[in-house]
Amino acid sequence: MTATIIDGKAFAAQVRGQVAQHVTRLKDDHGITPGLAVVLVGADPASEVYVKSKGKMTKEVGMKSVEHRLADTTSEAELLTLIDTLNNDDTIHGILVQLPLPDHLNEDLVISAIDPAKDVDGFHISNVGLLGTGQKSMVPCTPLGCLMMLRDHHGTLSGMDAVVIGRSNIVGKPMAQLLLNDSCTVTVAHSRTKDLAAVVRRADIVIAAVGRPEMVPGDWIKPGATIIDVGINRLDAPERGEGKTRLVGDVDFDSCAKVAGAITPVPGGVGPMTIACLLANTVTACCRAHDLPEPEGLTA
User: How far does CA 224 lie from the centroid of its chain?
Assistant: First the structure.
């Protein structure tokens, strides 16, 4: 068996196209432009690249893009004042504070200061609670992207056996809740799970989000299962030249692709969906703020 490759890059482009259509409709029919504000504290190189990409794609779909770049010496009070200003700005529908923050800033406190209705990362405790009880919430972008790809591939997920490897607050736990809400039977596995291989082997859907390079081998996979690989791990690649690296996921792609029915690659799988879903969440937040119908196909 050779697995179908789930092309996250192509699917993300499709999602951004849908977002752009909704943005045009909001402008033409209601005179509203969805606005996204991104706050970057310090100069973390990876965060710099990510924020630049977010701003570029926000503008490409026709939304208002605002960036606030603050020094790494910014105080907690200064950052909270900025967030309060954005909370009260009616032209801003989504607020994202880029993580990680400098060590002197309390991430939990900063996230809790964001208006839950504008929390397009889905990290606010109110949104966590709403998602956990099956109510309308802002959903974390990476799990939402995984769900979209699964729905696109399978149509319905009802009754499927899903295993989520990893229990992080950002991916593992919200992913499990989204799968439950779509009527999957869900197991959350982690470092203390006994006989992990046997647990994974029974799954129709495997979500690998554990942060360990190529941890899941092909002989853990049920024939025909769908694998969503959330992992992004950088390994040395001396064969490519001195100092060169390569990106790999949390599953061993080559062996798993021989057994699975479908699999996401790394890179080019889940990664591109994260920003696409950030844009989708901003449009959703805008529609909710103005009591307009939510964009079909872009929410959980």
Answer: 25
- The SS3 call for residue 122 is coil
- Band of residue 66 on the pLDDT scale cut at 50, 70, 90: very high
Q: Cα(137)–Cα(135) distance, rounded to whole angstroms? A: 6
Beta carbons within 10 angstroms of residue 2's beta carbon: 10
Q: Where are the beta strands (DSSP E) in 121-180?
A: 161-165
Mean pLDDT value of segment 108-122: 98
Establish whether 28 is a catalytic residue: no
Residue of 18, 64, 98, 119 marked active site? 98
The answer to whether residue 98 is catalytic is yes
Please tell me the distance from the alpha carbon of residue 205 to that of residue 90, in angstroms, as a whole number.
41
Catalytic residue among 121, 182, 204, 252: 121
Told to judge if 135 belongs to the known catalytic residues of this protein, a careful annotator would answer no
Cβ contact 290:30 at 8 Å: yes
Torsions phi, psi of 92, nearest 5? -105, 120
Whether pLDDT at 240 is above 90: no
Its pTM stands at 0.95
Q: Which amino acid is at 61?
A: V
Which are the contacts of 17, defined by CB distance < 8 A and separation ≥ 6?
none
- Residue 14 near residue 6 (C-beta atoms within 8 A): no
